[in-house]
Structures are given as structure tokens and as C-alpha cells.
Design goal:
single chain, Rossmann fold, alpha+beta
Length: about 160
């Protein structure tokens, strides 16, 4: 029976890839069970229920914004952090696109929430917006690899 006709094994395979890839740079990983089989089924069923009405639209961010921007829209934007653009693949999001994103957001009629790392260049590009600093802890590969950082939550002034 093809994998597409067996949704649980197909979901298990996708879940294993996702769990193993979390906290790492994007790359191919060897597939092995992320959780015992008995614990994966309820997680996959819950995910199926939660995302039943969700549509995925995969296009460049500029096209996506042009397609879906309306006065009542709320966008959450999570581009690569300044200085880590190449982690997601060369040419996918270049540093010059931060200025393009800033200009696009200035023309928004709707609302947005943008999260980025706290570096002077980001503060300068988005000085026109409301900027809130948040303290976070990132952890990848175990508790001994915890890193305290400051991120920025950027929104339109007055929202």
C-alpha cells in the first residue's frame, strides 16, 4: 500500500523529520522514530484535528504579502535573524531583504508582529515601528547548551 494511502505512517515519517530537525540548521536527517510508536499516534491525531482547516501557502514572502494583505489581516513574520540568513540556504533570504521588509511593513493597512534578534541594524531599520525587547533562553542539544538572548517584537505604533 503506498504511503499516501496510509496517513499514520506518512505522518510518523514527517514527525520524525521535524522532531530531529528542531534546533538545528536545515539539512537532511536520517529518519528514525522520534517517539515510541504508541505515543506518536495520539500526537498525530491531535495535530490532524488542530490543523484540519489550515491551508499552507508556500510562496516568496513578497508575493504572500501582496496576495493576502488586507486592512483586517494580522501577519506574524519570523524571518531569519540578522546575521543568520545563510542558515536556511544561500539565496533564500538575503540581508538586503530586511530593508525591503521594513518598507513593505510601513505601507501595511493591517497589523503585524515581527520577531527578530536584538542588533543595532534591526533597531535602525525598524525605528519607525514600536519595538519591545524580550529576554529569552534558547536550548538546543541539552540543558548545558542554554543561551540567554534578547529578541525584539516589532509592531506598528499604536496597535
Amino acid at each position: 500500500m503506498p504511503c499516501a494511502a496510509r496517513p499514520i505512517p506518512k505522518g510518523r515519517k514527517a514527525n520524525s523529520k521535524f522532531v530531529q530537525g528542531a534546533g538545528r540548521r536545515a539539512r537532511y536527517v536520517r529518519i528514525k522514530s522520534a517517539l515510541p510508536w504508541g505515543r506518536e499516534v495520539p500526537l498525530l491525531e491531535a495535530a490532524h484535528e488542530r490543523f484540519a482547516g489550515v491551508s499552507v501557502d508556500c510562496r516568496p514572502w513578497q508575493e504572500f504579502i501582496r496576495r493576502w494583505h488586507r486592512p483586517g489581516t494580522l501577519f506574524y513574520l519570523d524571518p531569519p535573524y540578522w546575521g543568520t540568513e545563510h542558515y536556511y540556504g544561500r539565496g533564500l533570504f538575503g540581508r538586503e531583504q530586511f530593508a525591503e521588509l521594513s518598507a513593505a511593513l510601513q505601507g501595511f493597512q493591517g497589523r503585524f508582529i515581527l520577531s527578530l534578534n536584538d542588533v543595532p541594524e534591526v533597531r535602525e531599520l525598524f525605528a519607525w515601528a514600536q519595538i519591545e525587547t524580550v529576554e529569552l533562553s534558547y536550548q538546543a542539544g541539552g540543558a548545558e547548551n542554554t543561551k540567554r538572548v534578547r529578541d525584539l517584537v516589532i509592531t506598528r505604533r499604536g496597535t
